[in-house]
Amino acid sequence: MIADRPSVLAHERFVADRENFAGLDLAARFERIEQTNLWGAASSVSGLGSEDLATAAIRDELPPLLQRLGARSLLDAPCGDAGWIGRVKLDLDYTGIDIVPSLIAANRRRVAGGELSGRFLVADITRDALPRADVILCRDCLVHLSFDNIARAVAGFRTSGAHFLLVTTFPEWDGNRDCEDGDWRALNMERAPFDWPAPRALINERCDEGGGGWRDKSLGLWRLDQL
After folding, report:
1. Range in 1-10, 22-31, 200-209 with the lowest mean pLDDT
2. Sign of dihedral through CA atoms 34, 148, 13, 83?
3. By three-state DSSP, how is residue 124 classified?
4. pTM, 2 dp
5. Closest by alpha carbon to 173, among 10, 1, 8?
6. Helix or strand (DSSP H, E) at 52
7. Mean per-residue pLDDT for 151-167?
8. Are 75 and 131 a contacting pair, CB within 8 Å?
9. Which CATH number does the domain 51-226 belong to among 3.40.190.10, 3.40.1160.10, 3.30.497.10, 3.40.50.150?
10. Positive/negative CA dihedral, 139, 159, 179, 17
11. b/e per residue, 64-90, with b = 16+ CB within 10 A?
């Protein structure tokens, strides 16, 4: 177990701004986070976890993993500003969705300008029918959602027809707790209330936030029909 778990900027800044989230629905909460750059990253409104150093391991390891799975299509749910994944060479059909319309509009402008490839759609993973894909990537998202909305999202992932889910997990984290939508806390998807089986693959992100206190942060791979 990792003993020293320092506070995370996304949580600190949400707590400081919590009164401004009162009465907001899910879309409005994430619109506010984007408009105020609440998560405090210099290069990405999608937060520190989307910056170059934080995504180096995934950029290296995601393409060969998708190739081993024989994946022909990937749903990035949510895609945020598509900053890091836009630099990954993915030899498949890519669709990015996000609940924040301005992010999708900006991504579409980048596609039109030739900076980015794929298609981008506005969608709420907790409510909307999702485009069909072989693999769903849900990175740095469930950690910001309440248990109820996580359950809705995973149910939607299952009914979408996808075979595999890649999702953020902290394998050495012990005590999952609920949170307000838009806040942040770590989740270990193998612990209650999820109790998922061991992941089929694990990409350790080599996270150095908090002086290595979150170094178990990983992308875990699960078969959706086993969740």
Report:
1. 1-10
2. negative
3. coil
4. 0.94
5. 1
6. helix 52-69
7. 98
8. yes
9. 3.40.50.150
10. positive
11. ebbeebebebbbbbbbbbbbbbbeeeb
